[in-house]
Structure prediction request, 471 residues.
Amino acid sequence: MPQSNDGPQHSGGEDQKKELWSSMLDGVSSGKRLPEKTLLVLGGSTETQKDYLEAIQQDSNNRRRPPERLQRRQPPIANSFALGYTYQDVLDADQEDILARLSLYLLTDSSPSFAPLIRRLFTIKTLPDLGIVILLDWNEPLAWMRQLRQWVRILRSILVSLDDDCKDALEENIIRWRDKGRNNTADGTGGGADGEASLPLGPGEWDEPLGVPLCIVCQNADKIEFLEKDRGWKEEDLDFVLQTLRTTLLKHGASLIYTMPSSPGSLQALMHSVLGIQSPLKRQPLKHNVIDRDKVLIPPNWDSWGKIRVLREGFEVESLSNTWSVEIQDPPNASADADDAAERENSGESVNGNSTESFEGGVVGCYERTIHKSGRGSTFPVKAPITQASSLEVESLDTQAFLEKQLERLEEFKESDEKAKTTGTTKRKGSSMDDGLDEKGRGVNDHIGPVQFNMGGIQMNADDMLERLKV
Prediction:
């Protein structure tokens, strides 16, 4: 009996020790668990996306890069086909400790066929930590509004298809991001006291929320100088582009930044703000910038219609905002773009200065007409309308038809070669006949040197001797 009582007591002590160690290990693992953030990067090209990924790793103050020990294990960037993926470690201000693990999904093609690929990122688990970035390029400013409209339509089509639980999570996201920073409008980073009332929304703000924080990155802002010098752009043209972007992005609660390869500016700080990443050592506020034309920064929840009007008078903020709300309702298909193109060609409306008289052609049509004014958009053609299968399928010629065309080209090359050979042979024959017409063999004598002979060890010239004898 005593032995039977000792067994259960001993096993109970071991179980208690195991529970103690399990709780300690769980506490340590949870303390070292990194927060996971997700960033969806849309638009741009494979090269500009790589430039963006490199820029968000640079500190805006000292532009320090990650240490070599971290650079050696940089993951590959797979963005050549369809939906790409890579990841990054978000470091603190000293570039030592890892604050979060960032998963980046990359998509360059705005075809609706790729919408199902990014739809799986919109789940209850990922939505609170999801951010969206749309890349625009100053090498192609004419296509900005068309590209932005297409991406917004795709995102809206995805949000509509979500289930009720995801839509509830989106509503919570909207309330959280809409109120963030409205207690502290100086930098748009928030941080108001608990219970402090937020400022009321102004007109045109958060009218069309997407449920996740959105940031527009306009790359290669150094091309602005080229547009002014070589393309005749003026200050009012740049203001019109900026006012149009700010008015449309205000409806989605989005932020805006201009970057250059040599100077990413506050891009890293803006991305950390969008994703809710804060360094315990240093908190860098986002300061707006609308003065420097190549370093524009519009933090989230900072802009308003009044601030947009101040940039240049005569801009119809309200009309453009209302038209944009109607324009993004259409599905992201080819018919909408084709209708816009036809309407833009047949439309007779004009833009006086930067004030739009009519928005019948839509925001995209008005924007493109203004940029086209005085030939300022002639070097940046609008991309062809997106078709349902144009981005996935390429129509090729029949093999026999291709070979037939190649045969015709080879025959043309053969005839040209024969003509060249015939012309060259005729020229060579003519030159040889001319050489044979030299009188008295002048051509042959030129190759024979003077006649010399040795007389008593002295080298004598026969021609000179004959001349002397004649004298």
